[in-house]
Amino acid sequence: MTSYFLKRILLIIPTLIGITIVCFLIMQMVPGGPVEQAIQKMKMAVQTEGGAVGGTLQSAISETELENIKRYYGFDQPVMVRYWNWLRKLIRLDFGTSYTYEKPVLEVIASRIPISLTFGLTGLFLTYLVCIPLGIQKALRHNEPFDHWSSILIFLGYSIPAFALAVILIVLFGGGSFLNLFPVAGVVSDNFEDLSLVGKIIDYAHHMFLPIVCYTIGGFASLTLLMKNSLMEQLNQDYIRTALAKGLSYQQAVFRHGLRNALIPIATNIGMIIGVVLSGALLIETVFTIDGMGLLGYQAIVNRDYPVALGLTVISSVLMLVGRVISDFCLMLVDPRVKFR
Q: Do 72 and 162 reside in the same domain of the chain?
């Protein structure tokens, strides 16, 4: 068992290297990189000053300046040499400097992590808190009115895109056309620093309520139905009938025996969610003007901010790979019959 998990952990390294090579090469091949942007800015500056109006790029910028720009961004070397230099820094946890923010990449990412953690952890907690009990009740009350009405509600929430739900909530509760109960931009008020600790917590929760509702509502359907179907499958097994024949009540047979086995598919997904916790939600963050990880990643790609984009890729990849190992470990805890070799 120990050797299996040790192998899985060691496999993270070559897998991560393969992921970074592919992503690095793709980013380097995309046009409009930092060199082209710097050249365009210099060309516009020269034209603004009245020089080389209507002229070519070579007449606006000398070859020496072009070489200096390429050298500054490291594009004067072959692509694999650039990758090796980047990888050597990565081993020292040096993700480089952002082209856009002109700050260390880790500092830029760290400033967005609290918001994404709020989204991810709160959404994860609410989803499991609601969906597991709801799925159990739907399984126990299958084909009853409760099962039908709850299915309609969760599929209604699942069918509405998160950004569309955000707009609806803003119209209804954000001062659109009806009630003005929640703020619709940012994560804190302008006087946040002047508030007490309790006041800051309330203010933060007040701003994040609508975005978190949009972030979590879409995941209710899949997890609820997974829990329901898994438990219903266990209720039809022979060991449940044996437990009932031995004198256990139906509730005891379900919660002592069936529920643990029904949680196996849920447990296998726990580790996979770790990467989602920090991924952010681009459309929701855009609608509510929130500077989270999703918006940061999108802006990094649009602006060709390679260090930030690669930094986010590395972090998300490590989380996903570690999450797979954690999923196997959770599966082993829930189901002792599982033996990894």
A: no
